[in-house]
Amino acid sequence: MSNENHESLGSIESIELGIIEGFFGQPWSWEERERVCETLASQGYGFYLYAPKADPFLRRRWMEPHPPETSQALTSFGQFCRARGMRFGIGLSPFEAYRNFDQRVRDALAAKLEAFDELGIDDLALLFDDMRGDIPELADRQVEIIHWVKARTSASRVMVCPSYYSDDPVLDRVFGQRPEGYLERLGELLDPAVEVFWTGEEVCSREFSPGHLERVSRQLRRKPLLWDNYPVNDGPRMSQFLHLRGFTGRPVANGDWVSGHGINPALQPTLSCIPALTLAQSYRQGTAYQYGGAFMQAARKVLGAELAEALASDLLIFQDGGLGRLAEDSKQKLIARYKAFNHPGAREIVRWLNGEYTVTGEEVQTQ
To answer: CA-CA-CA-CA torsion for 103, 108, 112, 115, nearest 10 degrees?
Structure first.
């Protein structure tokens, strides 16, 4: 084994990769989640965070308990993950609890934490995204809640997504101007053991650089936990595309400046495994990584050789052209082509071509 390979293998061992099911639109089935876990658990992925936007009992109706059948499914899936060496966690969005953290909110939050403890979660994420944040004492209020929760949960790791989780000015336009020094104040007050999610210079960052991550580490007084919004394809615009190519713009040198790297997958669970596998390979191979070759290797592993070759030949249509540029006769030919394959990945392509994965603006506003 060469020195270069030895060093790159050490990189993947020191960086925990994870799946963050945090997209808008139709959530995965339990069978699909198990299949993703089964595929990625042996490839360097160490945690699965359940936080689909479509689960109302984690978001708009967070004060209400999950239905018994959902709680049972969560318990079973957590056991499935742990049996394969993956931590299991849940992401909770206590909508604007920081505006009035009164006894009613505390009682509801305590009940939620008790329910999560019964599920046996390893990780608990408090997600303050998708909420107004233009109040001066935002960091102070959120830290109060985080520490209150940390003292009462049995989860061995607590994570938090700040209201302003990126440099991207779109967050200020949508959720109000971020308070001056918000990240610095959050980092100053927050228990050093709490992990902080960060999506980079943009909400959907095209790349992460060591220089950027070093700066964020100084602001937060800890290395950020990457919430990487690739290959996610939710929303009215992005759901018109399949994000399939291998990861780029994530150099192995980032490993010195992150506590972990979680990816928000696409609406298509099987197809999401293709880029997910390339991320693990990029950390293993370091500067020797080639995203085109990594894509083909991952596609063959997930889909088999024949279907992988078909996908590669249509990659420009799926990832760059999208449904909006696809003529009806061309679409029907593609549907016929992929219907010929008896494979869940092919069925996901057919469903996408039929518009079954389209996410509406209403879903984004209401989930």
So the answer is: 100
